[in-house]
Amino acid sequence: MSFDDHMRRGHPIVFGLLIFFSIIELAIAAFLTAQFNTHHNYFSDAERDRVQFILFTSIWTIVMSGLYMAFFFTMPSSVLSSVASYIGFLLLTWIFWTAAAASITSVLGGGLNCTIQTVFIYCGQLNALEGFAWVIWILVTFAIIVVAIRGLLAARRGDGVKGPLIA
After folding, report:
1. Is 52 in contact with 96 (CB distance < 8 Å)?
2. Cα–Cα distance between 81 and 49 in angstroms, integer?
């Protein structure tokens, strides 16, 4: 089985998982943002701002991953489906998720033990927010590695990074 076959099979799986976990992250972050805006019961401005950034990052990931999945199926030889385009999108997304996951981890001090802590009101939701942020970061990191390998193979083939993701 060639690398192209693996890409054709794996691309929808990885991007589907990205969208799925980002929807979960969106739901948690939207709930927390609504609660913080209604009741003003966040522990600190840092907590509130990090949750709002995760809300933005999850929306970004859902929209852009959906677009790139559509490009993959409808315009496989377009510049939008090129290795360079994917690397640019995935690197920016990776930067967003690195910042999001690291910042919420920093605010929570590495995670919360909900049975003994009394500072954070939405302990379980914040732990879930942190956990799913790191899961999405791992998925994006995996996708970058695969696309980088694909870029090396495309460069060897003579297409360069402007070539399509699937040969």
Report:
1. no
2. 34
Distances (CA, A) of 95 to 52, 81, 85, 116, 144: 16, 21, 16, 33, 11
Q: Which residues contact 75 (CB under 8 A, 6 or more apart)?
A: 81
pTM for this entry: 0.91
Separation of alpha carbons 93 and 114, rounded Å: 30
Nearest to 106 by CA among 124, 126, 92, 132: 126
Give tens-digit pLDDT for 69-125. 998 888 877 887 788 899 999 999 999 999 999 999 999 888 778 777 777 788 889
pLDDT at 162 (0 to 100): 72
Alpha carbon distances (Å) from 164 to 5, 124, 150? 14, 43, 10
Alpha helices in the chain (DSSP H): 3-39, 45-74, 83-108, 123-157
DSSP code of residue 32: H
